Every structure is written in C-alpha cells, then in structure tokens.
Model the fold of this input.
Amino acid sequence: MKCENCGKYEARVKDYRTIDGITGKALHCKWCANLDDVALYRIRVEGIDPVSFYEFIDYEKISIEELEELSEVVRNRIEEQLEDDGDLEKFLEYERHLTLREEQPR
Ligand SMILES: [Zn+2]
Done:
C-alpha cells in the first residue's frame, strides 16, 4: 500500500496526528512520517517529493527495498553523499547493488 500522503512510497508507518484537536491515524511512508503538518500539506497539494524536504539522507538507515523506491534524483544525491563522506566501501557496496539490480530484472 502506498503512503496516504504522497502516494509515492510504500506506507510503512502508522502516523498519529492531532489537527484542530482531533487525533487521526494515517499510514505514511517513513519520509512523510517524519515531517511536520505543513510539509505534509505541501506534499499533498503541490505534489512535492517528500524526500526533497531532507537536507541529509542517512543512507545507512535505508533498506534495499526503500532504496529501490527512491527517484533517480535522490539516488544521485545519495551517491554524491557517499563520495563526499569518503566512505569508499559503502559506495562500492551500493554500486554493486545497483549492478545486481540491472542484471536481474524482476
Ligand atoms: Zn509519503
């Protein structure tokens, strides 16, 4: 099931929000779940990718499945980040993962 807010990513978080004194539960992707109500509203109305609200993406906390979901723009950002961090081993591991994906179409 896709995120009820952005509709882009898989819903993985039960997100409880209180708006105007009423608490409601929504199923959100982990990107939307960590943003405030204003950001959620803008994502919904303007169709912004929730990942674009993040300055820094902690690639160590992203699973392979989540990585696959991300847009090319975001994946490029992660690649740049890996290079900037000088974490060569992580970068190579990530490259290997991308290569494997291309070799094994599902
Ligand atoms: Zn979302």
